[in-house]
Structure of DNA helicase Pif1-like 2B domain-containing protein:
Amino acid sequence: MVSQEENILLQHNGVRLQIVDTTPKRSFLCDHVEVVELTTNLRLLTEGHSDEREFDNYLLGVGNGNISVEQSLGEFKIKLSNDFCLESGILSDLCDFVYADLNNNFTNPVWLANRTIVTPTNEAAQFVNDFLLTRIPGELKIYRSPDTVDNETLYPIEFINKFTPSGFLPHILKLKTKHYIMLLRNLDATNGHCNGTCYIIVSLYDHVIEAEVAFGPYAGSSLLIPRIPHVSQEMEFPFNSEL
């Protein structure tokens, strides 16, 4: 099952015509597709989701044009409810709002799983992570990725250390024990150690990270995470990095 918002494919370095040709609507299979519209969100009908139902109805109202436009802000602009806004533009205030009482809850995986700060770029996410890390007690452990190039004239080490392709970790990785992390590779899918699994760090060694699954059916399961070679798929900058 695929929604219209999820059916766009990516054509690397493609021009408009190439991108259009890769869309499902250009496929010969499109004539055989049956459109089924989902009308009821069953998860929101269960008890304990009143806030989610209210937010769901608000989003539908925005999408259907039922929310009044604020002419003073612009022709097509609406004013968000105060419940959705934090007037302060200071990062520390945002972190205090989302992660209130962090010092007493940073080891609680359920508490952490119900909170998140969404950023437009990985660089911004790393900035927020580093800031929150300063608020968690414990000794800081720093890992650096060893990068090598065949021709340093073409790929200066300084440039490579600043470049973070999608799916890569930053060159300088800062961690603490009891820190909340997410696995980016499938290491042992049979035992639940796969991409997207969340962990709590138990110990930090020079070449290995010991962590436990934070929650879910495999909660408490231990994993030793070694340095893993990463190969960039970016055609513009083909290089290997061991993280």
Remarks:
- The longest strand covers residues 198-204.
